[in-house]
Design brief:
The protein has 260 residues and is of the alpha/beta class. It has a single domain, classed as Spore Coat Polysaccharide Biosynthesis Protein SpsA, Chain A, CATH 3.90.550. The protein is built from 8 helices and 11 strands. A 7-stranded mixed beta sheet has the order 5-4-3-6-9-7-10, sandwiched between helices. It has a two-stranded antiparallel sheet with strand order 1-2.
């Protein structure tokens, strides 16, 4: 991820070597998994376009991955002029993210939720932190600095999230305090290695891809980001309960050697 400024040694006319900094392209794909997001998607796409127009990206694309929506999600995305790809039916958020990450054309790929709970400008924090650390993966976190959370989830849901994180760390050994924030940046090279190995289609996929990244030796860092809860979450208590089962699946798949 620190490739945006690499050092190259070249000989000058006197035979002495000098160090020349070459600025590599800032190239980004922004992947948005979407299921029945006709109402929220237009405002989200407007905000992302405004950010990209005001930012210095040499290449940028927005990729909306439709997960078998039954409303006008595809129509509003196409009207906005963004790239739209479709899943074969309603396969789940994990499948949608995997599909988008593997279709992305940028040298770096961000996936973000359609409600844009983390403002798109927080991408700069992930980019800068990854560049400083030489990391291939930078994940947005609500838990590193909770003062950045403007609108909190209901108390009961926050407590469930903290319990899930505790169990996640015990089962997988991952050190992260928040794996479920839907705002993660990947070096494209790392993404092309990680996501083909992803097996989970549901909400446990966030943990799985971070587990795979560690197995593959990709450096991952956790970065505090601004975040506001947005009403209308599609994560039911049942889906949340299934995520615990997903943790056991991730550990089992890891022991079976399926993440190589």
């Amino acid at each position: 991820m620190n490739r945006n400024a690499r050092r190259v040694a070249r000989a000058n006319q006197k035979g002495n070597y000098v160090i020349i900094k070459l600025r590599l392209n800032r190239s980004i794909s922004i992947v948005i998994p979407a299921y029945n997001e006709e109402k929220r998607l237009p405002a989200t796409l407007d905000k992302i376009r405004e950010y990209l127009q005001a930012s210095r990206w040499d290449f940028a694309e927005i990729v909306v991955v439709d997960d078998g929506s039954r409303d006008g999600t595809v129509r509003v995305a196409r009207q906005a002029g963004v790239r739209v790809i479709g899943n074969p039916g309603n396969r789940g958020k994990g499948y949608a993210v995997k599909h988008g990450m593997l279709e992305a054309r940028g040298e770096h790929v961000l996936y973000t939720d359609a409600d844009l709970s983390s403002p798109i400008g927080e991408l700069e924090k992930l980019w800068d932190a990854a560049a400083r650390a030489g990391a291939q993966v930078a994940i947005g976190s609500r838990a590193v600095d909770r003062s950045l959370v403007g609108v909190h989830q209901p108390r009961a849901r926050e407590l469930v999230g903290r319990l899930f994180n505790l169990v996640m760390r015990m089962v997988t050994g991952l050190p992260f305090r928040d794996t479920q924030c839907g705002f993660k940046l990947f070096d494209a090279g790392a993404a092309k290695r990680i996501f083909p190995l992803q097996l989970l289609d549901g909400f446990g996929f966030d943990v799985e891809v971070l587990y795979i990244a560690r197995k593959l030796g990709c450096k991952s860092i956790e970065v505090p980001v601004r975040w506001d809860n947005v009403a209308g979450t599609k994560v039911s208590l049942l889906l949340g309960a299934r995520a615990y089962l997903d943790l056991l699946k991730v550990r089992w798949y890891g022991l079976q050697g399926r993440y190589r």
